[in-house]
Amino acid sequence: MNEDTLKGIAIGAGAVVAAFLAKSALSGSGGRALVRATVKTGLLAFEKTREVVAEAVENLEDIVAEVQDELRAEKMAQSQAAPPSEE
Question: Domain residues of the chain, as ranges?
C-alpha cells in the first residue's frame, strides 16, 4: 500500500470522525476539547503509521536488492560453469 493510499484512508476516516464529533461539540459543553483530543490522537497515529510503513518499505527494498544480487551471482556462476557448446 503506498503512502497516498494510506493518506486517503486516514483523511477519510478522520473526516467521518470529525463530522460526528463536530456535531457533538455543537450540542454540548466540553465537546470542543474532545474533538481536539481526537484530532490530535488521529494525527499522532497517522504519523506513527507513516513511520512504520516507511520502515517496512525500506526493509522490503533491501531484501529485493539482496535477492537480485544473489540471482545475478548464481546466473554468472552457471554461465562460467557451463561447458562450451560444440558446433
Answer: 3-79
